[in-house]
């Protein structure tokens, strides 16, 4: 599945099928998820290394054990998220950064 197909599928799934969204994200390395709606996403263990997540909506998403190394979160909506052992875009760990990656861009 191409990155464009992953992005399109996740956007279509919206809030109702986060289990499938989790499978798609964790089995692919997303490239361009700009403007993606990942609200309520269960993205545990997802690999977002170098992904474009600019302006993505991650409200209420769970990024436990996710890897965001070098990801672009410019303008992303990062509200009420679960950050636990998440690798931030700058390579630090959310657990060492007050349990957040907000303020730790790549």
How would you describe the overall organization of this protein?
This protein is mainly α. The chain has one domain: Pectate Lyase C-like (3 Solenoid), CATH 2.160.20. It is built from two helices and no strands. Helix 1 runs antiparallel to helix 2. The radius of gyration is 12 Å and the shape is globular. About 6% of the residues have low confidence.
Order of helices and strands: HH
Round the mean pLDDT to the nearest integer and report it. Answer: 80
Ranges where pLDDT stays below 50 over 5 or more residues in a row are 15-20
- Structural class call reads mainly alpha
Number of helices: 2
Helix coverage percent: 10-25%
Determine the N-to-C terminus distance.
Answer: 27 Å
Task: Outline the biggest β-sheet.
Answer: none
Number of domains: 1
* Oligomeric description of these chains: single chain
Rg over CA atoms, rounded to whole Å, is: 12 Å
Percentage of residues in DSSP E strands: under 5%
Task: Sum up the overall morphology in one term.
Answer: globular
Q: Mind telling me which CATH architecture this is?
A: 3 Solenoid
CATH class category label: Mainly Beta
What is the CATH third-level topology name?
Pectate Lyase C-like
Number of strands: 0
